Amino acid sequence: MARLPVYLRALTTLSEAGTTVCSSEDLAAAAGVNSAKLRKDLSYLGSYGTRGVGYDVDYLRYQIAREMGATRDWPVVIVGIGNLGHALANYSGFRSRGFRVVALLDADGQRHGEVVAGVVVRPFSDLRAIVREHGVAIGVIATPAAAAQDVADQMVDAGISSILNFAPTVLNVGAEIAVSKVDLSKELQVLAYHEQRKATQETA
Amino acid sequence: MARLPVYLRALTTLSEAGTTVCSSEDLAAAAGVNSAKLRKDLSYLGSYGTRGVGYDVDYLRYQIAREMGATRDWPVVIVGIGNLGHALANYSGFRSRGFRVVALLDADGQRHGEVVAGVVVRPFSDLRAIVREHGVAIGVIATPAAAAQDVADQMVDAGISSILNFAPTVLNVGAEIAVSKVDLSKELQVLAYHEQRKATQETA
DNA sequence: CTCGTTTTGTTCTCGCGTTCACAAACTCCT
DNA sequence: AGGAGTTTGTGAACGCGAGAACAAAACGAG
Ligand SMILES: NC(=O)c1ccc[n+]([C@@H]2O[C@H](COP(=O)([O-])OP(=O)(O)OC[C@H]3O[C@@H](n4cnc5c(N)ncnc54)[C@H](O)[C@@H]3O)[C@@H](O)[C@H]2O)c1
Ligand SMILES: NC(=O)c1ccc[n+]([C@@H]2O[C@H](COP(=O)([O-])OP(=O)(O)OC[C@H]3O[C@@H](n4cnc5c(N)ncnc54)[C@H](O)[C@@H]3O)[C@@H](O)[C@H]2O)c1
């Protein structure tokens, strides 16, 4: 159900535009998917639409948010406050979707005490205490690749059970830990691959 | 073939570790995939392995790089030099994988002239000239969501044919334009969904 | 030279997700 | 009230990718 966030965002956009009711066609167009797929996805959550009418935007939005766990606040820690870590800490889109950055951690002593987006950078060794104090379940890794596995191990050890990894490494963790990897170079390389194919096809 | 970049990275790691030959099992483990899937993927490119022996790491690496278009340099423009744009411009992983940031563009006049990672920030209106001058095919959008569609339209108009979009919007562009969307909030929301499910299962 | 071992390349099957298509259900108009 | 028009929810077919399994090929030992 990786599409629910997309639907949620589309519903929010519609709601802000003043729409109160929408058909599956409308919503599917806004989310960029097929309308049949959208209806099937929604049917897994329950019957929240009205036949012949459509879906109540705000009601459906609430239901999806509830299903996704977006009605509560999720505390998050970010480890590695370099270029990327700064950008993430400053990103308002996290906060507005229910993610609260409770701590910024870095191994580099030079960075300790620096305040980013209203949160002070602390030593990485504080991880365990912070996780326990705030009940953190989600950790973000924005360190260099070489440090990522070690950071992940310590996160798991401290009690974190979901990891968002920006470092270009495959993390070895237990199957009970959910890991999501974002690899920006990969995205660009896929685009370059398409460009490459376009170019070779034209010459052929 | 979105897995080729992962294989390429795994091969690079193996090569740096001094490995000259590897089996599909080894490489699959390093890339985090099934070995049968890996062999099938590689077989689409050609027969670059030796039965009973394995794959020559450097040779295979070159073949994958060639197939992906990673043997040449790809000029890239980044539009929207805010938090995220700064991080992307400073990211060394792009350069090392054959992507050269030839221009940083922003609509905000305050930012013009600022130098980020050795590249000066220029007005967005320079887009067309830069694309023509450097033969840019790939553009990165790191502007707020509200501006993303407009930026995309102008990119396409200027001749860009592949777009990497970080703004949380569905872009409407022609089918001949390749668009890759990275939605960091979505990743976190999927993780939160898993946490949510774990929690509700435990209580049940 | 032959046989056993290793590992690739490929075929085949299975399962999942996507999409089509249609009945059920609701609204509105007459 | 009844029928026409709309839109949801879902059953069924389709297609595609993943994984298991095996035959073909290379290598080395005897
Ligand atoms: N900058 C980007 O746009 C970008 C894009 C894609 C991927 N990445 C990846 O994200 C990661 C970070 O990139 P960056 O540009 O921010 O790098 P960076 O060098 O600017 O920042 C890394 C930070 O991690 C800290 N660190 C190092 N080891 C640590 C450890 N063991 N524990 C805690 N903190 C530690 C460093 O002190 C530093 O502050 C890299 O793996 C990079 O490949 C970055
Ligand atoms: N910061 C993050 O970590 C992060 C994470 C995920 C997604 N995003 C998304 O990336 C985008 C940028 O985020 P940010 O934090 O860097 O925002 P930001 O506000 O710091 O930067 C946006 C930049 O875009 C420029 N801009 C605005 N309109 C423009 C236009 N029409 N043409 C050219 N430039 C224009 C602004 O001048 C500004 O410099 C947003 O859409 C955000 O949702 C950011």
Observed structural traits:
homodimer; 204 residues; alpha/beta; Arc Repressor Mutant, subunit A; Rossmann fold; 2 domains; binds nicotinamide-adenine-dinucleotide; DNA-binding
Kindly describe this structure.
The structure is a homodimer of 204-residue chains. With 204 residues, chain A is α/β, with parallel strands linked by helices. Chain A has 2 domains: 65 residues, Winged helix-like DNA-binding domain superfamily/Winged helix DNA-binding domain (Arc Repressor Mutant, subunit A, Orthogonal Bundle), CATH 1.10.10.10; 113 residues, NAD(P)-binding Rossmann-like Domain (Rossmann fold). In chain A, the strands form 2 sheets. A 7-stranded mixed sheet of chain A has the order 6-7-5-4-8-9-10. A 3-stranded antiparallel sheet of chain A has the order 1-3-2. The longest helix of chain A is centred in the C-terminal third of the chain and has 20 residues. The model of chain A has no long low-confidence stretch (mean pLDDT 95). One nicotinamide-adenine-dinucleotide sits at the interface of chains A and B. Chain A binds a DNA duplex (30 and 30 nucleotides) through α3 and β2.
Summed up, what is this model?
The structure is a homodimer of 204-residue chains. Chain A is of the alpha/beta class and 204 residues long.
**C-alpha Rg of chain A (nearest Å):** 21 Å
Strand content of chain A: 15-25%
Ligand inventory reads: nicotinamide-adenine-dinucleotide
Distance between the termini of chain A: 41 Å
Q: Spell out the helices and strands of chain A N to C.
A: HEHHEEHEHHEEEHEHEEH
The greatest interface here is: A-B, 57 and 56 residues
Helix content of chain A: 40-55%
Number of domains of chain A: 2
- Assigned CATH superfamily of the largest domain in chain A: NAD(P)-binding Rossmann-like Domain
* CATH fold topology of the largest domain in chain A: Rossmann fold
What's the total helix number of chain A? 9
Shape of chain A: globular
In the predicted model, the low-confidence regions of chain A spanning at least 5 consecutive residues are: none
- CATH-level-2 architecture of the largest domain in chain A: 3-Layer(aba) Sandwich
